[in-house]
Here is the input.
Amino acid sequence: MKISWKLIITLALVLLIVWAYISAPAPLPDSADTESTATIAIEDLMKVVAAENDIARALYTESIVGAGKAAGLKFSEHWKDQEIQAGPLPALFLRETAASIERSPIPLGLFLGSDHPIRSSNRFSGTQELAFETMKANQLEPQFFLDSDTGRHTGMFADLASVQACATCHNEHPDSPKTDWALNDVMGATTWTYPKQRVSTSEAIAILTAVRQGFSDAYQGYIDEAASFEPAIPIGEDWPDEQATIPNLETFMAEFERRASTSTLKSILAL
Amino acid sequence: MSRKHLLRKRSGLIIASVVLSLWFLIYFLVPQNEHLLSPGGSESCHSPMACAECHEPAAGTTRQQIQANIKHWLGQRKTGADLVTATINNDDCLACHESANEVHSTHRFMEPRFAEARAAIGPHECRSCHSEHSGKRVEVRGNFCYHCHDTLEIIDDPVMPSHAELIQQQRYDTCLQCHDYHRNHLHQPPQKLTDALRLERIQAYLDGQADSPYGDKRQPYQKTRQPTP
Here is the structure.
């Protein structure tokens, strides 16, 4: 009997297909699939984290930077330079927070910009500029849009001069393009980005945790820097008043939680 | 030449090819020789590293990965899957190279307003500039700063010539003469361009042919990836 190679190859292929089909492995999860439990709109969650950010920045600006400067402590945009003994300015506190969030596995982006920034590279352009103008024209209503370039859902929130120190420092900065800032002026906006339109409860908790960890890491950065100041500055449970002291991380975060937790819990329950 | 002789010669060639292929395969599979597979790795900090320290296994089995990619190709799922090894991303680089002094963090460029810069030079991804395995430290040429800094305004500018003049003259090749892009070296920018680093010296560094002209590295990096035992 003559062996037909064509027949053997065809049979082998059929057997291979059958084997591949019946022993097919469990499919890998599709990262683009939205979980069925994802019921929270990212816009609503962004409002919660933006409110937490406002509280953390107001606390840092007023009780650490404002009171600290009055007590003789220094804060600088070059605070990381070895020869400079200073803490981060409020805008840099936010940047440190954003860097911490970036280090976490949570794909949440946080940025700060303005139409009159001290560094011109922080000036809004394109969709952000349009959204910022719309926000100012609509009673500071947060603006949400899908950034087609990055595919990220984006929320912009007004950044106010919540304490006098914000306006004063920007007015006195030699590179400031605007020198008549006043209390409660809209100095810019925070921009939050996230790749999903809806998130599950567990994702929402993870996002909130990452943001709070960001505040903690940013403040710890200041504590670490302050530990090398000469002469040494006391770091403990006291807040700067007439004495140049720095509250430790536990004290700072406890005060933040005291100010934020009730409103955050109400917001979460309303989601 | 007889047909028998031709067949014998062809068989010999096939056997020699198979033996040679097997030898190459075994030779390159020996862990000590895996660096020969890479044509680059000129960075002094990378050359002693094993491939797997950066190239981690992709999620799932190879069959699952193939299945996912075929389904993606057929339109039955939204995303494909990495095959064999995971795609290198910023996290892999930042696991060792994250620096507290970083002034051009990749994540900052994910802000919507950097769309043009992202499209042009990809500053949001480490590998846009540092492709590795090329023998060079940096792939892009020096004139990239204008994508973000073409409107730079420094009111109380202490340098000579001023930043505004340099930008007006489009002398973006001078940026790196004073500024260390990642600010991860102990370098203080001079106040006069005449005191700045020479372009040739910087280019040699970017090409992987010379040590950093910006001086010693700021140490330590925040994290250090443990070498493979």
